[in-house]
Amino acid sequence: MHAFTVLFLIFLLAGLLIRLWLSARQVAHVKAHRNAVPAAFADSINLEQHQKAADYTVAKAALGRWDLLLSTIILLAFTLGGGINLVEAGLPALFGDLSGYWQGIAVVLAVLLINTVLELPLSAWSTFVVEERFGFNRMTPGLFIADTVKALLLMVAIGAPLLYATLWFMQATGALWWLWVWALWMGFSLVLTWAYPTFIAPLFNSFSALEDGELKSRIEALLDRCGFKSSGIFVMDGSRRSAHGNAYFTGVGKSKRIVFFDTLIDDLDNDQIEAVLAHELGHFKRKHIVKRLLVSAVTTLLALALLGWLVDEPWLYSALGIATPSNHAALLVFLLVLPVFTFPLTPLSARYSRKHEFEADEFAAEQADPRALITALVTMYRENASTLTPDPLHSAFYDSHPPAPVRIEHLARLSS
Asked: Which residues are catalytic?
C-alpha cells in the first residue's frame, strides 16, 4: 500500500472518529441539561420549549452521524473503491466517445451528480421526518423534487462552462496554470455573488419588496446612519418550505439586497427586527465579508498551488485508486479529498467566525437597542428550537456563532 494511501486513510479515520466523538459529547451534554432551563432564559423559554430544542438537537445529531458514515463510504467508493474509474469507463456507453475537454467535464459532473443523488434519501428524511416531527417542515414532496431538479440543472448549467475554462487553463497555460485557475475562480465567484439575488434565488423563492410603513422607515433610517446602499429590502416566502426564520444580505455592489424571511417578520416586533438588521450591518461595517473573501482567496490559492505541484505526480493518482492520470482526475482529487486533510482547521474557522459575531453584536448595540437584540435572539432560539446548552467542546469546534448563554451575557454587558 502506498504511503499516501495510508496517510489518507489515517486522516479519514481520525476525522470520522473525532466527529463521532464530538457528536456523542453533544448528545450527552444536551440530554444531561434537558430537564432544566438555564437561569438566564427562565423568564422567556419554558421547560417544554427547552426540551423540544434538546430533542431536536439530539435528532439532528443522530441524522448527522448517518450522513457522516454515508459520505465516508461514498468517498472511499469513488477513490480507493475505483468508482471514478467506473464512471470514466461507463460514460462512452451512455454518450459515445467524448473528445477533448468534454470527457473531463462529463466525468467530474457525473461524479458530483451521483454523489448528490446518493445523499438525497438522507436529505428527504431530514425534511419529511425530522423537520416534520418537530413542526418545522412546510415542504411538499412535489416542491422537494422540483427544488432538487432545479439544483441539479443549475449544477450542470453553471458547472460545465466553469469546468471547461478550468481544464483549458490547466492544459494551455503551462506550469503556472494554478494561478490562472485561481483568478478564474475568484472572478467567477464574484459574478455568481452578483447574479445570485437577481437570477438564481428567484428560481426557488418569491421575493416581494417590504411594504411601506413604520418598519420600512426605521430600516431605511438605520441604513442611512450606517452608510449602507442596497438595491432594496425584500421579504422572502421562507414559510413555503420551513417554519424557521432568518435574515441575510446577498449580492455585491449595486445588487446588494437585504432579505427577511416572512417567518422572521411574523415572529419579531419592529424594535427586534431593527436590532437584528443592525447586527447584519455590523458585518458590513466591520468589513467581515471582505475579510472572509480574502481568507477564502488565500486558502484557495494555496490549495491550487499545492495541486499544481502534485498534478504531474503519478503516485497521487495510484494512491487514491485512480487508474488514468488526467487533469479532470486531479480536480476530483481536489474537490473530494482535500476536505479530509483540512478538517483539523475547522475550529480555527469557527473561532474566527465567532469573533466576527461578537463584533457585529457590538456594532448593533451602538446602532440599536441591545435589549431588543437580546429579546430577538431569545425569540429566534425559541422558535427555531436552538439548544441553549450545547457541549462546550462541540461548540468550540464547529459553531460559527457563540453559544446562546455566552452571546446573551455579552449583549447584557453592552446594554448595562
From this structure: 280, 361
